[in-house]
TrEMBL record:
Coiled coil: none annotated. GO terms for biological process: choline transport; glycine betaine transport. Keywords: Cell membrane, Membrane, Signal, Transport. GO terms for cellular component: ATP-binding cassette (ABC) transporter complex. It is found in: Cell membrane. Its main location: membrane. Residues 1-25 form the signal peptide. InterPro entries: ABC_Gly_betaine_transp_sub-bd (IPR007210). This is Glycine/betaine ABC transporter substrate-binding protein. It comes from Thioalkalivibrio halophilus. Residues 27-263 form the ABC-type glycine betaine transport system substrate-binding domain.
Length: 288
C-alpha cells in the first residue's frame, strides 16, 4: 500500500476543496502534528490500517486547528490527538457538533511547565515562584513554548495572565522547544518549558513539573480519536479499530523515548514485534 506524507500546504489545499485523484479516493486521510506522542501513535495506526485492515492511508501533517477544521469539513478522515477536556476545549466547542468522538486512546495525560531538576532543587518549585525578580532575571523573562495553535500555548498565555507574570512566551515547534531545553541543560542555564506527559523528554532528562496552585493549566487529560461525520459508514472496520486502540501511557512513554534515541520507525517496528498481542487485541476488537 502506498503512503503519502502531505505537507501543510497540501492540507491547506485540501481544505479549499481540491479534488484528490481516483487512486486516492478510498485512502484514509489521517491528520497529525509533529508532537512526539502524536507521531508515534499515528504511525502505529497507519501500519495497522494498511497491513492488518488492508486499507490505504495518507498522512496529512498540519497544525492542530486545520485538523479539526478538516474533519468538520470532510477533508480529513481521522485525527488521533484530541486532548480533552481542557486543552482542546475551544476546538471542541467550535467543531464538536460536526465531528465524531471514536473513543479514548490513552488517559492520565498531563500539561504543565517543566524545569530541570537542578532548578527545582534550588527552590523553583511553583509557577508562583516565577514572580520573584531573581528567577525572572535568570530566565530572561521567557518561557519556552511550542507551536502557536497548540492548546497548551493558549493555556500558557492564560497562565501568564492568571499569575500576573512579567514573562514572554516563546512560540516554536516541539523540536525547537526540546532543542532549547537540551542546550540549556548542557550549559547549566535556567529554563522553563511548556510540556506534557507523555513525552520522550521526561525519560531523557531529569525534569520536574512546577506546581500550579491556581490550576491554570488544567488537570488530567484524555487523548481521543476523532473522525469526520460519516467515516464509520464508509470505513466501518477502520473506525472500529480507532475506537479499540488503547495504550497505557507508561508503555507509550517507553516507545517514545526509544523513538527519540533511535527513530520513530525503529520504535514502531519494535512495538509491532514486542506488543504483537496488543495489536492483535485491537484488530480482533475492530472485527467483532
Amino acid at each position: 500500500m502506498k503512503k503519502k506524507l502531505l505537507t501543510t500546504a497540501t492540507a491547506a489545499a485540501l481544505s479549499l476543496g481540491m479534488a484528490t485523484s481516483a487512486a486516492q479516493a478510498d485512502d484514509v486521510r489521517i491528520g497529525w502534528t509533529a508532537w512526539a506522542d502524536a507521531e508515534f501513535i499515528t504511525q502505529v495506526a497507519d501500519r495497522v490500517i494498511q497491513e492488518r485492515l488492508d486499507t490505504g492511508v495518507e498522512l496529512v501533517q498540519t497544525d492542530i486547528a486545520p485538523q479539526y477544521a478538516g474533519l468538520a469539513g470532510g477533508d480529513l478522515d481521522l485525527m488521533l490527538m484530541s486532548w480533552q477536556p481542557i486543552t482542546h476545549e475551544d476546538y471542541i466547542d467550535q467543531f464538536g457538533d460536526d465531528i465524531v468522538d471514536l473513543g479514548v486512546l490513552y488517559d492520565n495525560a498531563k500539561l504543565g511547565w517543566l524545569v530541570p531538576a537542578s532548578l527545582h532543587a534550588e527552590g523553583l518549585t511553583s509557577i508562583e515562584d516565577l514572580r520573584d525578580d531573581e528567577w525572572r532575571d535568570r530566565l530572561n523573562g521567557e518561557i519556552q513554548g511550542i507551536d502557536p495553535g497548540a492548546g497548551l500555548t493558549r493555556l500558557s498565555h492564560d497562565t501568564i495572565e492568571e499569575y500576573e507574570l512579567d514573562y514572554t512566551l516563546i512560540e516554536a515547534s516541539d523540536a525547537a522547544m526540546t532543542a532549547a531545553l537540551d542546550r540549556a541543560i548542557r550549559r547549566d542555564d535556567a529554563i522553563v518549558v511548556t510540556g506534557w506527559s507523555p513525552h520522550w523528554k521526561l525519560g531523557a532528562y531529569e525534569l520536574e513539573y512546577l506546581e500550579d496552585p491556581k490550576g491554570a493549566l488544567g488537570g488530567a487529560e484524555s487523548i481521543h480519536a476523532m473522525s469526520r461525520t460519516g467515516f464509520a459508514d464508509d470505513h466501518p472496520e477502520v473506525a472500529a479499530f480507532a475506537g479499540c486502540m488503547n495504550i497505557d501511557i507508561d508503555l507509550l512513554n517507553e516507545y517514545m523515548y526509544l523513538a527519540d534515541e533511535e527513530s520513530t520507525g525503529h520504535a514502531v517496528d519494535k512495538f509491532f514485534n514486542d506488543e504483537a498481542g496488543l495489536v492483535d487485541e485491537w484488530v480482533a476488537c475492530a472485527r467483532n
